[in-house]
Amino acid sequence: MATATQPLQIEPSARNPGIPLDLGWIGDMRVNRSAVERRAATLPSRRPAKQPYQVAWLIRALQCLDLTTLSGDDTPGGVRRLCAKARSPLRADLLEGLGLDPAEVHVAAVCVYPNLVEAAVGSLQGSGVRVASVAAGFPAGQMPLRTRLGEIEEAVRRGADEVDVVIARAHVLQGHWQALYDEVRAFREAAGPALLKVIVACGELGTLRQVAQATAVAMMAGADFVKTSTGKEAVNATLEFGIVMARAVREYAQRTGFQVGFKPAGGIRTARQALDWLVLVKEELGEAWLDPARFRIGASALLDDIERQLEHSCHPMP
Amino acid sequence: MTVREILQTMAYGPIPESPEPALQWLEARGRSFGLFIGNRWIEPTGGASFETLNPATATPLARSSRASAGDVDAAVRAATEALEVWRATPGHVRARFLYALARQVHTHARLLTALETLDTGTPVRRTREVEIPLVVRHLLHSAGWAHLSERAFPHHEPVGVCGQILPWHFPLLSLARRVGPALAAGCTVVLKPAEFTPLGAVAFCELLQEVGLPPGVVNLVTGDAQVDEALIDHPGIHQVAFTGPPEVGRALRRRAAGTGKALELELGGPFCFAVFDDADLDSAVEGVVDAIGVGLHLVVQESVADRFLTKLRARVERLRTGDPLDHTTDLGPVVAPGQLERIRHLCEVAVREGARMWQPSWEVPKEGFFFPPTLFTDVPPSATITRAEVLGPVLVATTFRTPQEAVELANTIGCGLVASVWSEDISTALDVARQIRTGTVWVNSTNLFDATGREAVRAYLRPARRLGVPVRAPCPEGAEGPAAPDPRPPVEAAVEAARRALPGWRATSGHTRAQILYDLAHSLQGRLGEVVRRVAGMTGDAQSARAEVEASIRRLFALAAWADQNDGWVCHGHPPRHLVAAVPEPVGVIGIVCPKEVPLLGFVTLTVAAIAAGNTAVVVLSDVHPGVADFVQVLGASGVPAGVINVVGYSGVTGTPDPLARTLAQHNGLDAVWYFGSAEGARAVELACAGTPQRTWVSRGESWDWWNLDEEEAVRHATQVKVIWIPYGT
Prior knowledge:
heterodimer; A: alpha/beta; 13 helices; B: alpha/beta; ten-stranded mixed beta sheet
């Protein structure tokens, strides 16, 4: 029996307009690595292990998924196949067995290079799955600003609902917060109506404190989402980075009232890892963040494992 | 719940740890437990038993035996019989037993986790991920010491039969922290777990049986405070270890006074948690959550107090309380119903005294001994709760403006065993950590209990002491003459001078102190002939006078060396990137009553050991020891600041030092009293100090071999070791 439920929200109801750069706030930020590591170590033991909770959490992980392909050998055909998977990631009979409407259960977005946005847009028409494009000199951000802004504009023009942009790490490493702020502001303008997801590239920022600071500056400049990694850094989405960024998001919400979204990406391959990230978000940000309007997981191989786990949970081997 | 419903709430659902291993274990034993004496489970004489409850449900869990005095005697006798064999067992064999025991604990981790959680109400995340692994860790670490202790502590011997009275807070971990080092050192043990939480110890004794530990090496008696007392009073017990409330510890000191029993006390007290404006506030909030069950005194810098407390309230609002066997539970029940009443009362009084109370909007389960997390702010400085160890989820917040104020607040609150200091500035954190008077400081962390250091095993060893033959007949033990002056005024002045000199002297470096002491030794050496002549003139024995003066000078050089070598240690704890620094700190002002049999050598050994370690001293001296007078004379000229050594004299012909010793022991300006005199005098000193934090070191009328005494022993008594945990990483 299905109870009355609110439809799942994929797009934030209110965008973060940003605030003036607050250097006092940035300067006051402190992060203690060991304490963060101890906190991270406690998270996996809260991973739901019983049915139907685990199934529900895996479904939610799937609904928050930014199904991603960012390879040199991506082709329109390949992207179209991926989009088909994104629309209907699970067998309809399996979902009906769980009392869920198959039309409700799809991933949040497909994330591609700008060149493939049109292919994705064509395949996802009317599906509710959004199209995200990386931009701004992804993944290194080492292009002239004009080129990076042009890339964002181009991706949006081609139909991207969201742009996942990278920051110039040099601004963080040199402590040029004003430059970082101005740059993200410009990204936001270039993105126009598209959601701006700002990748701070944690693994290249040197310290956890700088991760917190970069995250805060990105939010002040109007990021709709903050995202851990490109997936191309040597160290990608760790739970420690996640805790630090989630806390920055929480602080920003508490001070400004705007709930910025959070997206871990890079190296998240298993259903267990996905559950750990949901636990992290629930613990640090609360249930309000556990929907695709405020939380995404960027991954390419994860969907297969979630599917495998769900099949296993719903039709356990005798 | 349907999947659809869960998708609306995103609740965790239950993540239960199965109680089955523990329930089966309990059922298989009829939920009824005897005493473990000489590797056999026996019924208590008289057959008395008592019930323990599962604090999360307030339902009966098991019946344990109430040991009679006869049972305690049988346990101590078993331990005494086992002692000769066990202490003679080679260290590597003892190590193998400890290693086997660690492996057994690891093998039975699920049973112990569930049992400990049922018995204590500690949330299972804590028992499974922290406590049980630490039990294994401590046993393995102790196995290491069993291998190494003979080499690390030459000329030491096990203290003997140890009575170990365990607390209800992390009982199994406390057990491992006590039993491991005791067994490593070659001691035998009679365990007495807390009345409300005996089951972990029972299961542990079964594991002992399985590894084939020789009979009597570890014995278990259970019951209430009367059993504690029978154990403390038993003449066969050589050392009593106790962890628990200060008032119980004080009573224990009184009972043990004059018996010659060594005491290893860990007395509780408020847990002070200091937060500076440059702390990682979110992590500090989690630090509070980690330790919230025992209650904390939060000392928060004014400029961040609002932000910190806002974050804390938001976090506490999201805390989960309930079934301790659920992995999502953050906060369990308190252990005993009586404790619940006490906490309730403390909170009521706090509100009546004007403190502002805050509790989260949710309610705790009605069944079981649950108390909601409670935060007090705007607490009047005089409120009862500002100095109370609450032992429940109660947070008392006060603010400070400067680091110095933070230190003063912490020391006024009177930290018990631990404090936590949160600041990202290492200079601030370490400076404050050094100044808070407590045994352990966790910088940017809480609840780190890794096994580290030599102190744990050294507590169960003592110097293999050869009793000496007095070189000269002791001075006459006269009765207190009727004309004996009131000892208080001179003591008062001496203590006052010593207190005044303390901050300056303790702040000098070991290097500086060593230099001064070398100078002192040098000037004494220069006056050697003169001093010997004077001493010989009194005693008429030139040969022994020369021997004593020369030995004193040698000792002075040795202690000068120690002043510069009493360094503590630094190691890496587990987990990685956790630096542990054991910092030796002076005890404070030490009152010293020197032995009469070797006046100069005894005086030099004790007084110089005290000041070498950074203490100041009030020394009780007979007026008949000319060598000592010479020594005192050269002090000033050698650069020992005024007030570092203060002498109070008594008539060596007609008097005894005991009235002065008693006055010293009753003086709250002293931090320790060392007494080397009669057995009665020693008892009086121990009794007088029992109700105070003062440490004692006494000889109980024995004549020690001062000629061959290891200087390190004296330096160790002059030193307290503060352990500072310093996690690092960027």
